[in-house]
């Protein structure tokens, strides 16, 4: 919502708002806090609130402990079974005390399990991370975001020359800029996205089975991980993708390596200024719309409307906020990530629905999916 269309109401607008405001005023009172922390019926709530606030205060320390574990490849080193601290210290090439400090911190974060006799094994979160190697790539990648967030107020004021804007070259392109020639930047982001695509692709194809469809074009399809998964799950559907020329070139090589080049058609172009391939009955935008401002999104939806068969389906998958069940991830993490990237914002289901309806789509609905935190799935019909 922009400053121009903010509602004019000042102060609580309903009874429930008034009650919430009253409760918050009470919580802001130090004497009430002291009482609530010792009164048996409110003590647990007070404790939960202090822990929640402490976690927000200290989240950056937890993240850096995780970064140390990832950089030292600690979880792989514990994957074979519990080991004494001294053996881990030797393996990590760290002093014993530092290793013990790290292992105890990681234990507190459930990344590691502390066992009898100063031995340590994989914790439940460390085990989950080991099964999802793309998480480690994001943890490493966060070094850029971490630097960009050092002065969050300067970032909000647009005063920071951010590292993330260099990582995502398309975030700095203006409409009408010549087609990008490629280069290292397209390689690094495409690789990061491809690593994290496989699980999301599975979630989407399970939530919205492609059977019975004819031709599916994945717009902004990166290196074709989704299109390959589609071609495997539903060989009868023509799988296609569309992306910027340097990314499309990478997609062709990646598909060739996976033996999928004959099963996926790769189109190259620019969805901001060019036209899209025609004749599809499904098009998808996976982790694409939130990278762009409303004007670009309106233009892209208009191009999709023009290219998609009448009655065809548009599927959008990305983190969505505003009560969609992924608000922390969407409205806090991704919205600040996109701020540092220099373009785009996360949108709620309601905001996306309004944009879709204004673009000539109808029957917008959320499709329940396995991990809405990383990708809520929304589908709409082209009228
Ligand atoms: C066996 C017994 C007795 C009990 C078991 C109990 C039980 C059921 C435990 C559950 C264990 C389990 C299966 C855990 C699974 C955990 C999983 C799957 C965790 C997954 C976590 C995923 C994470 C943390 C993902 C992080 C993703 C990030 C940070 C993504 C960043 C993406 C970016 C920056 C994308 C940028 C693109 C742009 C620019 C925004 O467009
Ligand atoms: C965040 S990535 C998502 C990639 C993939 N869909 C996924 O989920 O892994 C956004 C994709 O949109 C592509 N893209 C950005 N601007 C574009 C444009 N103007 N025309 C075509 N593709 C574009 C990028 O190259 C990139 O592959």
UniProtKB/TrEMBL annotation:
One annotated GO molecular function: protein dimerization activity
Question: Which Gene3D superfamilies does the UniProt record give?
Answer: Vaccinia Virus protein VP39 (3.40.50.150), Winged helix-like DNA-binding domain superfamily/Winged helix DNA-binding domain (1.10.10.10)
- Keyword field contains S-adenosyl-L-methionine: yes
UniProt protein name: Demethylspheroidene O-methyltransferase
Q: Which residues form the O-methyltransferase dimerisation domain?
A: 55-131
One Pfam family of this chain: Methyltransf_2
Cite the entry's keywords alphabetically: Methyltransferase, S-adenosyl-L-methionine, Transferase
- What Gene Ontology terms for biological process does this UniProt record contain? methylation
Domain named O-methyltransferase C-terminal: which ranges? 184-362
Annotated TM spans: none
């Amino acid at each position: 919502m922009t400053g121009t269309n903010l509602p004019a109401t000042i102060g609580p607008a309903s009874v429930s708002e008034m009650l919430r405001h009253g409760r918050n005023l009470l919580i802001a009172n130090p004497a009430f806090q002291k009482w609530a922390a010792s009164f048996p019926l409110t003590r647990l709530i007070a404790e939960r609130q202090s822990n929640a606030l402490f976690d927000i205060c200290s989240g950056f320390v937890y993240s850096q402990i995780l970064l140390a574990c990832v950089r030292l490849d600690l979880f792989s080193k514990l994957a074979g079974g519990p080991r004494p601290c001294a053996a881990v210290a030797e393996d990590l090439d760290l002093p014993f005390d530092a290793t013990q400090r790290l292992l105890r911190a990681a234990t507190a974060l459930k990344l590691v399990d502390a066992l009898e006799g100063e031995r340590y094994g994989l914790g439940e979160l460390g085990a989950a991370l080991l099964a999802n190697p793309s998480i480690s790539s994001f943890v490493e990648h966060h070094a850029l975001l971490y630097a960009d967030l050092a002065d969050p107020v300067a970032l909000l004021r647009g005063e920071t020359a951010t590292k993330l804007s260099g990582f995502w070259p398309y975030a700095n392109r203006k409409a009408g800029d010549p087609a990008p020639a490629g280069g290292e930047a397209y390689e690094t982001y495409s690789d990061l996205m491809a690593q994290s695509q496989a699980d999301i692709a599975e979630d989407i194809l399970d939530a919205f089975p492609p059977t019975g469809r004819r031709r599916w074009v994945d717009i902004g399809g990166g290196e074709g991980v989704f299109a390959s998964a589609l071609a495997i799950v539903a060989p009868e559907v023509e799988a296609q993708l569309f992306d910027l020329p340097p990314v499309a070139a990478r997609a062709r090589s990646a598909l060739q390596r996976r033996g999928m080049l004959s099963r996926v058609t790769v189109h190259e172009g620019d969805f901001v200024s060019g036209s899209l391939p025609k004749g599809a009955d499904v098009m998808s935008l996976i982790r694409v719309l939130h990278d762009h401002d409303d004007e670009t999104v309106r233009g892209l939806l208009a191009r999709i409307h023009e290219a998609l068969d009448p009655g065809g389906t548009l599927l959008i998958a990305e983190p969505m906020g505003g009560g969609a069940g992924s608000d922390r991830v969407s409205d806090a993490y991704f919205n600040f990530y996109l701020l540092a990237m220099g373009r785009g914002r996360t949108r709620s289901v309601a905001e996306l629905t309004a944009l879709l309806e204004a673009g000539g789509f109808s029957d917008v609905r959320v499709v329940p999916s396995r991990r809405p935190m990383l990708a809520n799935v929304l589908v709409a019909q082209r009228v």
